[in-house]
Specification:
heterotrimer, A alpha/beta, B mainly alpha, C mainly alpha, A: Rossmann fold, Rossmann fold, 12 helices, C: disordered C terminus
Chain lengths: 432, 294, 370
Amino acid sequence: MLITSRGRVKTLLATGALAATTALILSGCGARAGDTVETTAPAAASCIDTTGDTIKLGFLNSLTGGMAISEKTVSNVLHMAADEINADGGILGKQIEYVQEDGATDWPTFAEKTEKLLTQDCVAAIFGGWTSSSRKAVKPVVEENNGLFFYPVQYEGLEASPNIYYTGATTNQQILPAMDFLASEGVKTLFLAGSDYVFPRTANAIIKLYAAELGIEIVGEEYVPLDKDDWTTQVAKIAEAKPDFVFNTINGSSNVGFIKAYYDAGLTPETTPIISVSIAEEEAPAMGHEVTGNYASWNYFQSLDTPDNATFIDAWKAYPGSSGVTSDPMEAAYISMYLYKALVEKAGSFEVDDVNAAAAEGGVTFDAPEGTVTLDGENHHISKPGHIGKINAENQFDIVWSSDGVIEPDPYLEEYDWFPADVRDALVTSAG
Amino acid sequence: MDGLIPPLLNGTAQGALLLLAALGLSLTFGQMGVINMAHGEFLMAGAFIAYLTQQVISSSDLSIPVALPLAFLGAGLLGLLVEVSIIQWMYRRPLDTLLVTVGVSLILQQAALQIFPAQGVPVEKPGWLDGQLAVLGYDWPLRQVFTLVLAALCVAALAGWLKYSSFGRRIRATVQNRDLAETSGVPTRSIDRITFFVGSGLAGVAGVAASLIGGTNSQMGTQYIIPAFLVVVAGGIGQIKGTIIAAWVVGVAMAYFADWTTGSLAQVLAFVLVVVFLQFRPQGLFTVRTRGLT
Amino acid sequence: MKNLKPWLPLIGIGVLALVLLAVAPSVLSMHWINNLGKYCCWAIAAVGIGLAWGRGGMLVMGQGVFFGLGAYSMAMHLTLESAGPDSLPIFMILYDPLAPLPAFWEPFRSDLFTLLAILLLPVIVASILGYALFKSRVKGAYFAILTQALAVALAVLISSTIRETGGDTGLSDFKYFFGFVLSDDGNKLMVYLIAAALLVVCLLVVWQLGRSRFGELLIATRDAEERVRFLGYDPANIKLVAFVVAAVMASIAGAMFVPIVGIITPQEIGASASILMIAGVALGGRASLFGPALGAMAIGWGQSSLGSSWPSGWIYILGLLFILVTLFLPMGLSSLVGKVTGLVWRPRATPTATTPAPEFTAPEFTEVKK
């Protein structure tokens, strides 16, 4: 309003000039959708430097912001694994030189740092990430630059990228074993409680399908935002529904509020036990004794009795900055580093295409703390045993159920005919 | 019918926690005009003090009652430190207090993350809070009742202090007309400090209550700060009774919304409700007529 | 010399345009071009905040809402474009492969509709919101808290509507930008140049508004709303215009952010993102022309470089910046420039943007008018 006319002309002129410039820019350059250039541009020439006696690797974890709560430990374990490998002679005789970046719990930052690690630091591979959002931010960048990303956390599956290696569980290695365990316990009614975001919603969608198959009735489903601790209203509903079991896909500090509200309502593991997929040795202490007696489904527990686990635990306890306990995501991060070492040694090269080719040949294994794991060359996930642990008074887990040997990774649930084929096909097609 | 009772009672308790978090703000924001975005981190300080107290007094039956005054003192002193070092220079610039306290809050959060275990720490509830109270056919968890009682005690103490003590009289005098109060010999500077100390201390008490309900970690303050401000704004500044009613309404509304829809939608609806309400009563539920201070 | 002064800002804009559009592309690597593009987006939003807050006195703490409107409009369009005609975005297939595309997605297939939405959606939302808030004379801290609450509400809403919006994982993996392949370096440069050019346009708009009668009314409203009212103007309308312009700028910023960064999630529009947008404005100087833009770019750069080498330190530095700048330089770093050049130029008391404005925030304790 009330702009002097003289000024308006000037601005219009300037804007016009700019518009013209922009039009020039637009017409000047770039591939268009219709052009013959393939949609994923030819991978930029790799700038990985293998001439010296060191090799650069990137670590990308949130060291600040909300997710630092979980990701700091993963970063520490990665450092420990790298130090171990270095003390042992490195990878292909080269010492690991790591570049630690902070994802700052901010997904665009994850994308930015991935690009920086790949194009500025020229790292041979990146390790880290936690939330699915962080992985989804990283994915297009590693694919475009043909980099490698090792992701160490259990997640909702239904993904397989040629540039990502998933060392955490996919749904058929954590969610489905948990359901098998419930079926073996004779559970008839189940209540679903989750944080309101992608992992719980997807996990519960799969749980509902499998529950129908197993003859388990879902008697309720509640979601609360990730950053909200108060679960009293929802727990009152659980108390009213009186399910045989509660399936808990809550994440983060909200879990503490859930466990407290559950305990307060007079619900106990004897009458209405909870099975969780996000409470591990790291998280349980913050819930005190009120979580005792409930269950968790993981592929690794500190209490697992394997020779490699004892070594791993001792090494971690002695490592500076250690939290003293080991947990599934930490172990998966530890695996990711050694898996990369095994892949590179098999390939005899740090080049991404060589590493992927070595993976595709199959047979890459690592004697992990959870037992020997094998990489699936096609979907880049690893085989894992499934375990159910019961939380004891020391906030450690007593293993009460284990799967029959290791479970092969099946991110698209292809071996499960209750999973709608049209969904799978549509997903696979759109994923390319 | 009985499906209507649990949200009412739990919403009341939720409102009580919100009230505890907002009570301190209604002093520092309502009476002094300081927009303290670090209030949530003072609350966090209270929760960590409860944890530290439990490290010394291992019996949680005793440690929580001991932690309450300690948290008040600790968070109050933290507030006093911030007041003396920063806020006292900006009383004539209320919006700027918002910016500086955002800085304080960032620093306190990061410090807590580095000082304490990243995953957070456990605060055990006292054994005498185990169990439920049967109210109208609903087994109301005692922890919820405790929050309500604690909120009631804090309100009573604060109201009494403001109304009957000489400090309270001076605070009210300062709020109503700072210049006149100063001329009449009221030491407004020290009144400011005491008010800020008490307001921050109340956040500490709220922190103890919050540590019993949810997690105690570096991020815990962030979930309380916006709702608490909304409650103060909707209640009308300078009036505790407005804050009480607003907190109760928001708490109960959120519980019913959560019962009918989802926890996420409940939060969205409650926020929008307050914003819409303020269209019709931009000064909040109650307002106090003040003079001067312009 | 005497006549040059009013044109200095224009020269400044010209220099900035030259640096961003010509110098930067020729000296910076693609990685830094991309980063600079991201900073430009924040700078665009900051220019709007500078107008609303610095000159209009409205502390807009919820610019994430408008940033989100633009960003999600663009992201929905790019998602559909990447998915191809007649196919659903991946995340929707997951929850219900047979259900149709939600109705509000459908029009975003169109290029034109998307561009219009980016420009007009914020106008509509900001007009309704602003009209209601300003008419009922909500201001100061109330205004700040309410706008922030709305940003939080929108972020929570998006997080919880997973099939409709992608939830907290957001929208990502865009392949095309209006027909251009996004992974192509030439196209990335083009997207950057558009963002940079838009920043320059926004600066021109604010400069022009500042020179106009409206600009003077806006500052007058900020400093003495009552007096403006007594002079026969409606302060609500004046504030509304500034608020709407700021909203459009935030929306444009969000829209450009998407192709440059490649992902948008509710977190980018929530409370802390909205506050971070304020940080740059406060640092650079809220009431100056260049302060907000340069401040936002500095914060972005700090996050990229300092956040890299010393993550926890960066948070402390950011916190200290908030405190120290507000304490000692309430008008931001540009007021320092103003003071220094003031010594050299010894200007007459002209109302230039860099002159520290008197304290303006409307007091909270005004007598209630019924």
